[in-house]
Amino acid sequence: AERYLRGSLAPAAPIPNRAAFSLVVAWHGVKLGSLSHDGHEWRWAAAKGSFPPLIRETIPGALPPFIESLLPEGWLAQVLRDEDERSALRQGKRYLSNITITEDARELGLLPRDMLEGRLQGFANEGLFSGRYEGAERAALEGSFEANLARIFASGTTPRLSGVQIKAPMNLDRDGRLRAATDLPFTHILKPAGTSGFEHMPIVEWLCLELGARAGFRSAACALVKMPEDMPPALLVERFDVREGAKDERFLALEDFCSLLGVRSEDKYKGTIERMARALRAVSTEPSEDLATLFRRALFTWLIADGDMHLKNVAILKIAATGARDFASARLSPLYDTLTTRVFPGLEHDHMALKLAGKEDRLRWRDFETLARTIDLPLRQAADIAHALVHSLDAAAADVGLPAALRSKAAEETAASVAAIVGERCAALAAELG
User: Fold this and answer.
1) What three-state secondary structure class fits 37?
2) Which residues of 2-25 are buried (b: 16+ CB within 10 A; e: fewer)?
3) Fewer beta carbons within 10 angstroms: which end of the chain, N or C?
4) What is the pLDDT of residues 372-396, one digit of tens each?
5) Are 204 and 182 in contact (CB under 8 A)?
6) Integer distance in angstroms from the first to the last C-alpha of the chain?
7) Within a 10 A sphere around the Cβ of 44, how many other Cβ atoms?
8) What is 71-88 written as a DSSP string?
9) How many CA atoms lie less than 13 Å away from 283 in the CB half-sphere?
């Protein structure tokens, strides 16, 4: 009977794994490798060729941290209604850091390449955008701004953004037209106002980026945008992680500290400045300069009462030449996503997002001295940094003002609150420094 059954039964066809799929991951349109999922776990396979180590598989079976850090979170994740990482990656195609992820490699040549066209410095006057806003909500007759953004993101070719604040990917062309970047190069980020007491969030962020620039930080270029239909002004930020034109052949990527430390985005508040410094020392091409900048950044964050400097709001800008196996430059990125959180409702007692010397509030100069010792920054250099920052920031806070076209009683009061907090903290630290 056994011989009969063995001889008469045809071998069963293998059962196909319908949960399995594979994605092509490209950087500036060049294939970096393949990301596959078998229904249970992820697998990353790097392509053959000369590429710097941008994507690392740190935990077998898990999504590589760099890819995970690109995924939408917060408001956008709710709008897209992705069930999990697999769904999110299969629906989106374009991401920050010039990354494209698609199931069909033929699409790589059809999607827009992100590079600057119009520069914000040519379409901004005293902090106010002077180009033409042609965002999607202008043509909409019904629905909220959020609903209009949701319709934009319904297209898989609309670039995906991380971060919980509402943001829209935009394109600024050479004629100063600002449009949704659905099928255009993604060059700028538009951050509209919030509601329920957060209407002035773009104004506060613009003020803090301006303060940072005046205090000597490299800061993202930005301008405030007068919005249609009596909406509060929005903040327009120019990307610094894209090519500057057709002749620019550099490969650029922005890797935040969640990715560097292998921390999931939902744990972005679980970290310390000291741990960031250790990671920075290992990857920076100029570690001494970047550690001093990180120290200044932590001090600046405290002085402006920014309670949202978490692991995704600080990053390394990595740059490589075509065909290179290593990054020519890996440096702490320009300042972005920074604002005085204590001026908003319910955040009057907000504290640092990340601990410093074991503390997140009531910081004194001795805590910053402890930080300096821990990251091997000479105390004399740390004191010099603090003196210079306090002096420049205090002067900037007393001088910076809103664009005339956006001044209102409420906006002026918010700006005055920011200046008062900065002035008070600068005075307190100056007294301790002596």
Assistant:
1) strand
2) eeeeeeeeeeeeeeeeeeeeebbb
3) N
4) 999 999 999 999 999 999 999 999 9
5) no
6) 98
7) 19
8) S--HHHHHHHT--SHHHH
9) 25
